[in-house]
Every structure is written in C-alpha cells, then in structure tokens.
Amino acid sequence: MTLPLSVPLSSRLRDVRGSAIRDLLALTARPEVISLAGGLPGTDLLPRERVAAALAAAVADPSAVQYGETAGLRRLREVVAAHESERLGRALDADGVVVTSGSQQALDLVARAVLDPGDPVVVEDPVYVGALQVFQAAGAALHPVPVDDDGMVVDVLAARLAAGLRPRLVHTVASYHNPRGATLSPSRRAALAELADRYGFLVVEDDPYGLLAFDSAPPVPVAAYGGRVVRLGSASKVLAPALRVGWLSAPAELLAAVERLKQCTDLCTSSLTQIVAADLLADRAWFAAHLDALRAALRERAAALTGAVRAAFGTAVTCSTPAGGMFCWLEFTDGTRPAELLPRALEHGVGFVPGTAFAVDRDLSGAARLCFASNPPAQLHSAVQRLEAAWRTTAS
Amino acid sequence: MTLPLSVPLSSRLRDVRGSAIRDLLALTARPEVISLAGGLPGTDLLPRERVAAALAAAVADPSAVQYGETAGLRRLREVVAAHESERLGRALDADGVVVTSGSQQALDLVARAVLDPGDPVVVEDPVYVGALQVFQAAGAALHPVPVDDDGMVVDVLAARLAAGLRPRLVHTVASYHNPRGATLSPSRRAALAELADRYGFLVVEDDPYGLLAFDSAPPVPVAAYGGRVVRLGSASKVLAPALRVGWLSAPAELLAAVERLKQCTDLCTSSLTQIVAADLLADRAWFAAHLDALRAALRERAAALTGAVRAAFGTAVTCSTPAGGMFCWLEFTDGTRPAELLPRALEHGVGFVPGTAFAVDRDLSGAARLCFASNPPAQLHSAVQRLEAAWRTTAS
Asked: Taking CB atoms and an 8 Å cutoff, what residues of chain B touch A1?
C-alpha cells in the first residue's frame, strides 16, 4: 500500500523528461526478449571473479565498511589521476580528482554547482538522456547542437556563439557517443577547446566509453586541447556498473564546490567499492589484459550486429560503423518509423530504442539506437532476425 | 596539479554551509586523537564478517555487478517494507519503498522533488547539518524550531503555524536526535502529525537511529500517527555505512518523483550492496541478535561516557542521558565555550563538535556534541580525561 496523498511537487520537476530507455527496460527485461535497448555492458564481459577476489581482500580492512572522505578514497584518486595523466599527456595529481557515485553523479553535481535556473547550456542532438535530465532538473535553457558522423558539429556551435549565445556549459560525449556512436574528430576537439577559451564556457567531456576503442589508442581527450574542460570518467563500462564508482577532474574551485554538494547528496561513495576499483585500476597488467579482451569482444559484437543489419535490411537502412563503445545508430531510408516498429518488435522478442527518445529539436523519427554490448554474437544475429521479421510484418 | 581557472558558481551554492563536522574529521583523523566528533558507528561494532560472507554469496550472481532498477532491488524493497510494516503497525508493500544511496540521498531527493527556491521549510534547532545543507542547496527559506529534552518543541511550531507560517516540509530526527540525543515524546509525535494534516505540510521523519534503542522497543514512528509523513531509513547505523543503502517510504506521487530524480542523480544504487543489505535484513534471527549486541554495546558506551563526564566536570556541565542512538549533548554551566576549548582539546588528543556547528538561530555557544558510538569504554574514559585536562588548562 502507498499513501494516496497528493503532494505538490517542485515546478522544475515538471521539466524533467522521463527516460524512455529506463521505461523500456521494464518491457525488455522479459526473458524472451533480446534487448538491444539498454546501455548495459555485457554481463558476461564483466570481470566478476576479479571483483569477487578484490572484494574479499578489501573487506579484511575494517575501514572498508565505514564512512569515507567525501572527495573519495585517496588511493583511488591517485590511481585515477595516474590514468588520466596518461590520457591527457600532462600531470594531474590526486587533488585534481573527486570520486563520485558513477559519472552520472559527477554530471549532476557539476550542473548543480555551476548552473542557476535559466542559464544557457549546450547539449548534443541526439543527446545522452541522462544529461538532458540533469540539465532540465537544474532549470537550464537548452541549446541543442547536432551530432553527425564526426561528433558534435562544432561549426554550428561556433555560429551560435558568433550570433551571441553565451552558454555556461557545453556537454559532449565526445568519444563513441551515446546514442550516435560517433567520435568527435581531432580538429573539432581543438576547435571546441578554443571556443571554450574564447567565449568563457566550460566543456563537460563525459567520457565513459573512451577506453573502449576497438582498433586504436583511445581518442585524445578534449581536455588535452585546452583548460576549460571538466572530464567525467566511470568504472561502470570498464570494470562493473555495480561498483557505482565514477570521477571527475575539473578546476580546483569547481572541485571544491562539487565536494561540498556531494556532502549534501550522499556524504560519500562506498569505501568498499572504491577499494575494489582502486585495486583493479592499479593492477596495470591485469587491467590492460582485461581491456584488450573487452575491446576485442565488443569489436566482434559490433561486427556481428552491423553485419546482420546490413544483410537483413540492405538499402532500407543506413547503419553506423562503430569504432568503439557500445552503440550502433540506424537510420531507416524506407519511411519506417522505429517508434511504430517497436511494439511489433517487442512481440517478436527484440527491443531497441527509437531515435525520438534522444531527440532535443531534431526529427529523429527514422532513427534507432541499437546496443551491441549486452549480448554475444549469436544473440545479436537472432535479435536482428526478429527485428527483420517485425519490420517485414509492419511493412506489408 | 589542478587548473587555476576561476569558475563562476551557482548563486545558491553560496548559501550552503560547509560541514564543520566534516572539516573537523580531518583534524581528528590523526591517530593520536580520540574522536568523539564524527557521527560514525564504531568500526569494531560493524558486522564485517557477516558482510564479507554476504558479499561472497552475492557476487556469485552475475546480475550483482550489473546496473539495477532505479527504484531499487525488488527483494530489498520487500524486506524493508516488511520491517517498516512492523514499525508502523500497518501494511506497507515494496511499491511503497524506494532504495537510495544512503538516507542522505533520500533527503536530498525529497527536497529537490518538493521544493522551489524560497519555499519555507521548518528545521530543528540544533539541526542535523546534513539536512541544513540539503535545504540550503534547495534554496529553501529556513524556519528553525527549538529542540529540548523531549525533541522538537511542537508547541512553538503550532504557534508559528497559527501565526501564518505555511511550510512545505518539516524535517525532524525524532528518535535519538542528531546532535541533541533527545527523542520526540509520543504526545508531540501525535501533535506533529495532526498539525501536518491540518496545515497541509509534509513531515520528513529522518530515522537512522530508531532501532538503536537501549532498553525499550524502538519509538513508534511519527508516521504511525498520520499520513503526511515521509520516512527515511538507513542501513548505515545498523549494518554498515559502506553499503551506502538507505530508503524512503512516502506518498506514491512523491516516490515517483524521487525515482525520476534518482535517474538523474546516480541511475541506481549498487546492486551488490543492495543484495547484501537484503540478505542481512531478511535474516531475522541474525539481525535481531546483531541488533541486541549493538544496542548493548552502545548502552555500555553511553554509560561510560556520561559517567566519566559527570565525574570529571561535576556541576560545570549538564549532560544528557542517552536512551539510544549515538550522541550525548553537553551544556557547560561555567561559561566555557566549547568552540574555544576545541583547539586545546585537540592538542590534548581529543575531538568533539561545538554546539555552534549545529545552531540555526539559537545561541548554542555553551554546548557540545559528543559521539559515544565510535570508541569502546576505555577509550571514552581516556577521551574524557583529556577533555578535562584541556578544560582545566583553559579555565586556569
């Protein structure tokens, strides 16, 4: 029983879009459905035995079950700083890192620390829905900039800035974009960092997928191109989501503000899971081998999914070619509307997310996001067969 | 290295008081200092071996390391609902509970869901600083009501309401108050619930300590007296803080809003630690025995601390008589100002929190909060000896 009481809610809450993806997860959780919908790393690819061993070792220390410092476990901040220094090509120390409960919390705290209601914020279109929700909850005025095969179209942003737009923040999933799969090109990264300096905004570089490069080194972070970049990272896609460990690096003043807000929000992240994350990230040989295996598995899954899609749909679909990350982006060229296809697809036992769920201003009614990370190749083949069957039924 | 960049911050952040307690923890973390400052359960009292066993069992399930539902693990919601039903004396089911990353997150999400900037909120004085920070971050207009030996002085609240105050929320740590140690009397609980119905506000009953009753059954919750009560609970004080598991029960509409905001804030709480919390709370025989041992240890510690304080300070101090929870409240009657005593106390190797850290409007410059939970009796005796020595030095 819940109470039937009517509670007046905050006016800003009305602006927060529900996540169609999270709602979909309820439907796709049925065992007979193969889900390409969630942004879940493959459960079979998570290093569960290594996590179990690290947990067993961690809990031997009494302080592992106690409260910890709000800014995070010192040792984890050190190992994250070491990893980040390598990515950035410049030294970052532990004081430049704050640990959060997943990178989603880092994004929420940055938004709360920086934004007043009505402040302009640039988001990508299509957008990571979790970012859209954060900025809506902060009462921001959203200014979408389109994403194409090379990531955010920075020329469009430059034109808006030249026309007078003065955002506080520009949010980007620059590497292996969610949902678009695209990666911001080096020249666009340089241009974005230069615009941030020129116009005085902060770039929030949301980077949970950067290490999941299939065939190359991870993309050079936007933060390597300039100083006005907050970087968000996460253990969820490279270790395990249930650790709920993320982090950010940012200017000192902003880090201090984030730490103060984190006190309000959850006091601290779990000492236990921070120890595990620190152990695994500090074990360089193991982590490198694990990442190699993970990247190889994801590359195989991406190839399986895109190959099956191209074989099944031919010219009726254009399909992105993932170079990393977890997502493939489809655009139907035959007039199919994925939002209308979805109910039939679920009847056929396959789930995905229609592009409309990620649209800010654009018409993405012909697009769909497919996650290739959650299922092994054979399942992905079956999923595409089911999707094709649903499509043929709908089309006829 | 951190970036020297100056970042303009949200105007509301300037209203958020830093936690003097968290700042103090840095000082009291020195190994030679016995800390009565933090609100930490005794590390030696945490059921670390049982947590270790539960972790080892939990991680055998692949889903334990994956993302989970935003509202929380179904089984944990069920077991919390069962416990809450017993406390409330009426049936609550799993849909009436949302799991959060500690009860601090529940408080933050409730505030964000309900409050618009400028909305009036009633807080206790002295106040739980984590609540003060949450309401400051939400931009609320704070209306403090004093706490005495029987908890919040509800007559004062009633008079303010009669005079026209119309709060959205009234926050109370009704059982074993932090920092005051007091428990809201049954008649005041009934009066508070009746006022909530009459004036249409929500009571937020923040209850991390209720099960830590020394000699009696836990206090009957305020929520048992009326329907306009949001209850917040936590595994931190009865199992382990590092689980970062809390929960709330609330009207359905508010729970849905909290769940939506939790998507923005951290997507979900750790599946792994939720499984552990569910296992331990569902093991009724073990949990009852553990609670009994915990309550007995806390009772012993409270007696040790208050006995030592009375022996050392005589009539120079009045000292509360804890009936549960973790805190003892001192008021110096000899003109000693604990904020001035503190630096000398730290030199003598003992830390505590001056009452001023918890003051909203009141003059609490003669008061201090001492936590008896973190240290065994012998340490508490030493701590009070050190405090007495510092006091005698200061007084001379």
From this structure: 90-93, 96
